[in-house]
Amino acid sequence: MAPSKQPKNVKKDQKPSPDKPRRSWWFWLSNGVSALIWLILLTAGVLGYFALGLPNVDDVVASTRRQPIVVVRDAAGDDIARLGALYGDAVSIDDMPPALPAAVLAIEDRRFYTHLGLDPRGFARAMLANVRAGSVVQGGSTITQQVAKNLFLTPERTIARKIREALLALWLEQKFTKDQILTLYLNRVYLGAGTYGVEAASRTYFDKPARNLTVYQSAMIAGLMRAPSRYNPKTDIDAARSRTSVVLGAMVDAGYITSAQADTAKRGGQVNVSKGPSGRGQYFADWVLANLDELVGPIEDDLIVHTTLDPSLQSVAERSLVFALKNSARTREASQGAVIVLSPEGAVRAMIGGRDYQSSQFNRAVQAHRQPGSAFKPFVFLSGLEAGLTPTDILVDAPINIDGWRPQNFSGTYEGPIAVEDALARSINTVAVRVARKAGPTAIIDTARRAGISTALTNDLGLALGTSEVSLIELTAAYAPFANGGVAIVPYGILDVVTTDGRVLYQRQGGGLGRAAEPEHIDMMNRMLAKTITDGTGKTAQLDRPSAGKTGTSQDFRDAWFVGYTTDLVAGVWIGNDDGGGMKGVTGGGLPAQVWRDVMLTAHRGTPAKALAGWTPPEPVDPLTRLWRRLTGG
After folding, report:
1. Which of 245, 440, 522, 634 is the most exposed place for a label (fewest CB within 10 A)?
2. What is the number of domains present in the chain?
3. pTM above the 0.90 mark?
4. Torsion angle defined by CA atoms of residues 226, 232, 237 and 239, in that order, rounded to the nearest 10 degrees
5. 343 and 387 share a domain?
6. Is residue 437 part of a domain?
7. Do strands 570-576 and 348-352 pair parallel, antiparallel, or not at all (unpaired)?
8. Which position among 218, 343, 374, 427 bears the catalytic label?
9. How many C-beta atoms surround the C-beta of residue 582 within 10 A?
10. What is the mean predicted confidence (pLDDT) over 381-401?
């Protein structure tokens, strides 16, 4: 018999190894159990690691605390601004209409009452829907997971955050009932327009408490939860209605309502969405809020701030300024402006800090300091009156040289002997300097301080030409004593501050800075400043009633001002450029006077004309009588 062949790679003297025995079921079982144990330990370790990073879930109540809300309202009671996110009072499910939680469950988490905080089936369904749609059309998180995320976690999209979210969801399910978790969710979920919770959303969008929501309104609020900005009915009512129809369909599919009830809800779906803050008066609102802490201290409660702002006057002032700048920005190189309107007692009725708040929040009415030019001269001439001058005194308009300083008139000409009142009306610089030299710079500064100007003023004769910078609000306020008979005022915008439950934290009691000038001097100033409008540089500002004011133009046409008053209102207008660049021939008697006149005419419409404080203007004379008197010398 032929010998058998040796296996390859085996030496002659090496015996072939016997076949390996098959592993028994016990081997596989023991190794499987071991692997499972290691997997459990590994999983427990991972979960333990993430559990160590969890917040203190026992502080759930404390974690729902929020920052107070401050609502600013105008004199008509309408909201003009809101500081902070809006949270409504907590509402229990029992106090909500049944359609509201039903709509939320139908569109957000139909298996909420049956799952344990996590819903693998719902997650898989959402993922399948997203794959089919090619985009994210459904979310896989349960309401419990969303509560966990909203209360305890950041919105970052990481695996670690999702693990912690799942752990917290399981904890919440053990700690609270389903109704409690749903209540937490409905009172904390973000619903657009700065609102959190269904109560805040209901009042913001429909001006009613959540308990009074209709089926359609409930579905609209539920529809916001997926994308609050996209489906906000204040900004896109068509998108909101389309989303509401989807929610109503989900409610039918889930068995919460019938098709007939859904159709009935849609037929009544022409909902009226309430108006939010007007968008007007934002510069004013910023100014008010900046001073709130000084009046009430640290803000710990939701507050309502009632203010002095007149919404109709604010609208007129905004339109007038924007119109003036729109027509002159290119041709006159005037790009910015500001307007202040006050009552003679100091209440701010209108405040415009620039042509467009969205483009620039810098408040030029309050924060900007610019040279007022001749608009400062009333305080120079008031000091002159206090030094013994009278409106009819004659001074000389002629070249003047003070230690090498040679101030000139805007016109470049000189008129010779002229009455003090005419010199102010025509804004003659050389006479203003002579008045300033008679009164003295220190006296002028004292007069300005008594009138309410607090910014630094240079102690030299340059004061006569308005070279020291001031803000529009303080310059306008300093004219108030001319309107009210001589009392200096402090501009204010807040009437009272109350909590939402009616507690009064602050209420204005009045007050001012005391007497700025004696009545006889106020009478003389009113006479002179009225002549500025009737016969001087402010003719463009003439009204249908007694009024007075002063123009101002700084060097190289960098700033143009008009500040004036009646017995009812004091108003100031500034026009210029933020970079201090000169304009093309814009003077205080031009654009600012036009804006001032437009605002004041509208503000006084339907009100009786009144004489200025302590001074009665002469009766107007018709042109024929004036001509006859001139011819006859009568």
Report:
1. 634
2. 3
3. no
4. -30
5. no
6. yes
7. unpaired
8. 374
9. 16
10. 94
